[in-house]
Inverse folding.
């Protein structure tokens, strides 16, 4: 399999901080990340400091942010959170790709993503996209409910026929979401059992195992938290075991970055967040959580940055742009920032850490 088919796949809500984290990746990491970008319902936009009123405005701003931050790099585009919406006669997916191609002077490497449950109008839009533009690949997202459904293969064949894509042109994402991944050995055995009879297993362009062990914010207590990265441990277990199976094939790793997979709308004009910094370790996340920002202010970040920069966990200011910001903040060379700042800082470190562990060591070949 070509090196082009080895990547890390973060599933992101396309928040401003997440996209800035992608923008600030170094060249080595950038070429080894294939993000799956979900478009959220209309919500407060930290880039434009407002909430869109109409869907065309919302989708147009999404396209601008993606083009500005990720440009011509490959990405999977997912409209499942807004699949009940249309723009005129177009599905949101078709509108997005029309906008991408109207705003760029160069070929776009974005790819539409669908599921066996994707509505008819979106599937038709994807078919139209592949006809209008030079798009030869797509993404297919499969969750556990679909996988365990007895009619899964029938449903799968139907959506493949409707979109015009074949397994060989599809990046398959097995999305475990926020399943209980703590029982790593048992869970990895169950995934292997499911893969053994998975339709067209050897034909898919790539196969990514994706999940998240990051808890919801309400389960993270004040001060220092060490949270196990069970999603990473599960991938290592599956990747190790599948090599000894008769149906062995290459796997890619995916996660939800440094958030819980469930979507919720955060409106900063009505809600308050606590000051916190998330820092990805080999097998865990370190999360330092402070008080409400409205109550105690952004200066809490100075203390938190110093705690990380002075710890044995810190990988050094040259590891990533996020690490450099932590170091400079700890030294008083950067301002305290705000939640959006620390979103990009933490994600940039996380993305770089995962890519380094996957591709800068002999762990995965």
């Amino acid at each position: 399999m070509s090196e082009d088919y080895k990547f890390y796949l973060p599933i992101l809500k396309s928040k401003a901080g997440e996209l800035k984290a992608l923008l600030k990746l170094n060249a080595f990491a950038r070429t080894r990340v294939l993000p799956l970008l979900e478009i959220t319902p209309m919500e407060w936009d930290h880039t434009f400091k407002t909430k869109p009123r109409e869907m065309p405005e919302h989708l147009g701003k999404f396209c601008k942010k993606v083009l500005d931050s990720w440009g011509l790099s490959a990405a999977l585009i997912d409209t499942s959170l807004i699949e009940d919406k249309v723009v005129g006669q177009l599905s949101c997916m078709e509108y997005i790709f029309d906008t991408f191609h109207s705003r760029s002077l160069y070929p776009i490497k974005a790819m539409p993503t669908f599921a066996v449950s994707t509505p008819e109008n979106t599937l038709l839009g994807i078919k139209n996209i592949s006809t209008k533009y030079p798009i030869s690949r797509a993404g297919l997202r499969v969750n556990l409910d679909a996988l365990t459904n007895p009619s899964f293969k029938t449903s799968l064949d139907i959506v493949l026929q409707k979109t015009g894509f074949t397994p060989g042109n599809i990046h398959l994402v097995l999305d475990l979401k926020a399943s209980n991944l703590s029982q790593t050995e048992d869970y990895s055995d169950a995934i292997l059992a499911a893969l053994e009879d998975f339709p067209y297993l050897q034909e898919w362009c790539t196969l990514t195992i994706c999940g998240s062990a990051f808890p919801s914010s309400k389960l993270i207590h004040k001060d220092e938290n060490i949270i196990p990265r069970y999603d990473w441990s599960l991938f290592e277990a599956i990747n190790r075991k599948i090599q000894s199976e008769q149906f062995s094939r290459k796997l890619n790793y995916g996660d939800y970055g440094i958030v819980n997979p469930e979507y919720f709308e955060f409106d900063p004009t009505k809600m308050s967040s606590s000051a916190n910094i998330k820092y990805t370790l080999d097998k865990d996340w370190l999360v330092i959580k402070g008080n409400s920002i409205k109550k105690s202010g952004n200066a809490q970040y100075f203390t938190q940055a110093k705690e990380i920069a002075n710890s044995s966990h810190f990988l050094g200011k040259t590891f990533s742009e996020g690490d450099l910001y932590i170091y400079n903040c700890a030294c008083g060379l950067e301002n305290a920032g705000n939640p959006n700042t620390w979103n990009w800082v933490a994600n940039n470190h996380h993305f770089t850490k995962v890519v380094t562990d996957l591709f800068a060591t002999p762990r995965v070949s």
